[in-house]
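wait is this the right file?? whatever heres the structure
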């Protein structure tokens, strides 16, 4: 007999007739729960109760109970067993909502965190430029002495040029103009906002590092926590990243350049997000493509280990990557020679 499962129950069929049935509860939530288990590849209790009499099955999930065959089960109609299409509709709505909830895992939150981190970096750069330009009217020399968060902290804490100089034990003549108390207060408000933004960025960076160590420790060790999180974000999820070939991972983030190459015939990109990795952006230009390719290959292995086996293979991957880097640096020690007759690019 053939074991088949419909949305409303499991059935043993022979010669085009139902010989035995194990129906699902007539409850949309219960039906949705069973449909979800089937989608995840699980065997239902109703199927187990009929499996001993089955010799053939219609679903690969049930291959342990018999040989998989094609079977037309359209004669098994829900209305013949007291089920309606309205119940099926309600069950699929419940299943869709549950699928949406299940799709939002830790890697999705990680992607949002790294997007927020990038937004804060962008905001910090804009606010820092504005603060230096504004406060530079009053004390332009401070930009040479302090930078980044220290600059914002000094302005927020001390304000006027004499107070900043006293706090930093500076003795110099400044060419900056005097500033009114109201204007200085506005500058200090801006510097305080910038300092808070720096603090938020640091906290987010620590969160990304700690979360990557939990969600994708192998990727974090090979690509770095921030670059690894950007790759997961660009791919959509850890599962999608693990299913990608290394050539796709290598070019994640360079989609526009790739389409421009395909459409207009421009030079193909050698790397995308991976350019932010220290091994790539510090390498000579003629080695970056090969290094990005080798790095992408190890990131793919790391993603699959993080998703499926949960095993720590960072030592092995680092050894393999280091060995490949030595080979690349040896093979491409000098820049490639230009073909004769090709003009040199002018440096701007």
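ok assuming it is, sequence goes like this
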């Amino acid at each position: 007999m053939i074991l088949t499962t419909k949305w409303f129950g499991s059935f043993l069929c022979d010669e085009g007739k139902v010989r035995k049935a194990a129906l699902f509860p007539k409850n949309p939530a219960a039906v949705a729960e069973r449909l979800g288990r089937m989608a995840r590849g699980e065997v239902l209790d109703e199927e187990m109760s009929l499996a001993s009499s089955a010799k053939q099955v219609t679903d690969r999930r049930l291959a342990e109970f018999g040989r998989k065959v094609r079977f037309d089960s359209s004669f098994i109609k829900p209305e013949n067993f007291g089920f309606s299409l309205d119940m099926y509709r309600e069950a699929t709505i419940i299943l869709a909502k549950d699928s949406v909830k299940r799709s939002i895992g830790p890697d999705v939150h990680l992607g949002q965190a790294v997007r927020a981190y990038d937004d804060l970096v962008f905001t910090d750069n804009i606010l820092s430029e504005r603060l230096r330009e504004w406060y530079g009217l009053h004390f332009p020399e401070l930009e040479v002495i302090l930078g980044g968060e220290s600059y914002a902290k000094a302005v927020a804490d001390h304000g006027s040029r004499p107070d900043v100089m006293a706090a930093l034990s500076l003795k110099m003549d400044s060419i900056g103009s005097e500033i009114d108390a109201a204007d200085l207060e506005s500058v200090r408000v801006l510097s305080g906002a910038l300092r808070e933004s720096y603090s938020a960025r640091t906290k987010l960076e620590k969160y990304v590092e700690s979360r990557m160590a939990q969600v994708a420790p192998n990727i974090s060790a090979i690509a770095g926590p921030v670059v690894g999180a950007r790759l997961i974000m660009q791919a959509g999820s850890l599962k999608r990243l693990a299913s990608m070939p290394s050539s796709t991972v290598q070019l994640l983030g360079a989609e526009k350049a790739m389409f421009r190459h395909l459409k207009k015939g421009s030079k193909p990109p050698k790397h995308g997000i991976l350019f932010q990795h220290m091994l790539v952006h510090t390498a000579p230009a003629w080695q970056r493509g090969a290094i990005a390719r080798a790095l992408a290959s190890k990131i793919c292995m790391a993603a699959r280990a993080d998703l499926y086996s949960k095993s720590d293979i960072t030592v092995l991957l680092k050894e393999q990557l280091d060995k490949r880097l030595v080979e690349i640096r040896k093979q491409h020690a000098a820049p490639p020679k230009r073909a004769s007759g090709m003009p040199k690019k002018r440096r701007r």
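The first helix runs from residue 28 to 39. so i think its the right one actually
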